[in-house]
Amino acid sequence: MTGWLIAFGLAALAFAAMLVIGRIPRSTREITAAALLLGLAGYAWQGHPGLAGAPRKLAETKGDAFDEKLAERRRGLAERFGPAAQWMMLSDGLARQGKTKEAANVLLSGLRATPDDANLWLGLGNALVAHADGVISPGADFAYRRALVLDPEGPAPRYFYGLALARAGQIQAARDLWAPLAASAPAGSQVKAELEANIARIDSMLAAGSPSAR
Fold first, then answer.
1. Can you tell me whether residue 26 is helix, strand or coil?
2. Which pTM value belongs to this model?
3. What gap in Å lies between CA 80 and CA 59, rounded to an integer?
4. What is the pLDDT of residues 108-145, one digit of tens each?
5. Angle value at C-alpha 138, between 6 and 125, nearest 5 degrees
């Protein structure tokens, strides 16, 4: 219980200090509060204040889990051009080295500069999922939903949020995102074919009563 009180107390103290001492402008207060919420969400998800620390080893030193094909698909759908590109390239470089925490932190830095960039929020969601080995943490879910709010008609937030949900076993939620996207995708496109195949697979799983996607 003490750990939780300390965490919330430090978060509140940090925000108050930034308001009073740092005098952060009104335009950056939302992203500052969001960053603190992401930290608290991560603590709520992973924090065990009563246990001894256990250092993370494999993911910090091995970069062979980086999905190059998925990154290329993301660049094709989202941030190949524009202000998010430089942050995403730097984040990808760190992720290739297995530095998933640093990869996510780079995107948070980008969001402090441009808090309304849907591509950066989407990238943060993907980075947090990669850091958690495929688990959609509260922070990742928040980032995906923020990207959807900022770019409700864009294909990238729906595609990658749906992909994360499907891989986490939330196949109905993934289908709900993918179905309208597949309907609006250009005829004959690779994305349309992929989404239709995934939706057909989900439908067969739901009909069979399968609890999750593998």
1. helix
2. 0.65
3. 27
4. 999 999 999 999 999 999 999 999 999 999 999 999 99
5. 125
